Amino acid sequence: MKKIFIIIITILFLPCVAIANERFIPLELFTGGEIRDDQEIRYTSADTIFGEKRRKKIVGPIDWKYPGTNEIIKVYKRTQKNKSGKVRKTQLFTVTNDGQCMGRVYDQRRSGTKYIKNGCKFPLGLWKKGETRTFSVTDRGARTVELKILSLGKKQTSCVKYNWKLFDDATGKKLADNDYKFCKKRAMTSLLIRKIKD
Questions:
Q1: Using an 8 Å Cβ cutoff, are 7 and 14 in contact?
Q2: Which residue positions in the chain have pLDDT lower than 70?
């Protein structure tokens, strides 16, 4: 009888354990906006200055026409200034991969301007701690993004830390390996960039 009781408790308890490590990551964690209680991805208003030196800013949503097409999409504009206050980097982000990511569609900096399709830079929606997903991206050629959740928290307002890797599909070479952390009303709070060896 004792064994049957243990089996029944185990069967009832296991689904709770699986769900406990999963949570909804809202778009507002990326933008620094007010986080809602529902689990719907919405383009809510953002106007956030963030970063240790307060040189980064994200605003939106705004309508943007993808070059060479008639497609108009909603984007958030993220800028970063240098020491003298001049904008040195501008990026545009939108919801991608069927609501699984915030991804870049435009990136302009000293190294040049590029347009990205199906980008993925930030996890959205339901994710589990330790979960890894891969995404096919067009970013100066065919690329693969690998995104892994490192720490998740239990609430929609909890910080999220994750690892983001970028690979070249033609060679299999790793091009980037970064850890990001985003927190409530602060947007990105930390970034660890690992140097890639040739």
A1: no
A2: 1-20
